[in-house]
Amino acid sequence: MPRLADIPGWAAEDAAAALVAYRQTCDLWPEAPIPDADTDPRRFFEAAFVVSDPGPAHLTAYYEPELPAALTRTARFAHPLHGLPEGWSDACWQAGIPYATRAAILARGDLPVLAWVETAVEAFLAQVQGSVRLMLAEGGRMRLGYAGRNGHAYVSIGKALVAAGQVPADRISAGAIREWCAASPDGGAAFLNTNPSYVFFRRLDLPEESGPLGAMGRPVTAGRSLAVDPAFVPLGAPVWVEVPGLPGRLMVAQDTGSAIKGAARGDIFLGTGEAAGRRAGALSAQGRMLVLLPAAPSVIPPEDLP
Q: What's the whole-model pTM score?
């Protein structure tokens, strides 16, 4: 079992920045070692945790899109971002009772709509990301975050396009999906229904500088927050992440995703806007995730650190 202090790259890591991200949610993780106000960040992580290595990991990335939108449907803005329908909750599909499919939801006209965007693919990709910032035609901005989903299994549109021979496997990306949809007679709307999963949104009141809310109900941090499968990685746990093209970094498991399944699967939050989206869309690689699990005692005061 590797020691954090012996991991290549750890000595150069910004442990203070990692500790800021960790403090964001450590009070929500029952087993979390709680750092004292005067804790030295590097010594805290080295003394308070033991390292678990689940093996090779598949790392991807996500971001918060920024899109033009409108509160009222128009010829330009005709694709809905739905709010959670009354009476729908994740508890139902988690009990094995999924709601209507994506195609059936979009065919209905009686569900609450929070805003309208320009294309079916942008509405779709906003759902994949789980959050979005909207620049409203009426003026002002609106931020939306995850409110629930319909409970159907997520199907990768990228993989579906490759399987159908529409896009070569070595070219598939969010950009390639956008291009393919733009070239389709219906904007790709029918093919997007290959994925029956559907995400509903809610309005968020967050500071402009804040990241979107993660699965723990707290804002996520660009380059420091990681979406994981909580069946294998505890939410709130620090995770050392190595992926080609990026320096090793200590992140915190603070989010989840319907496509993020398994012990060695991670999705890195890279920020907001177009540039973050390009970087996120380009990242899909084999790397390593080392999960930091608590060592006793659960509270490490500064005087007890080595």
A: 0.89
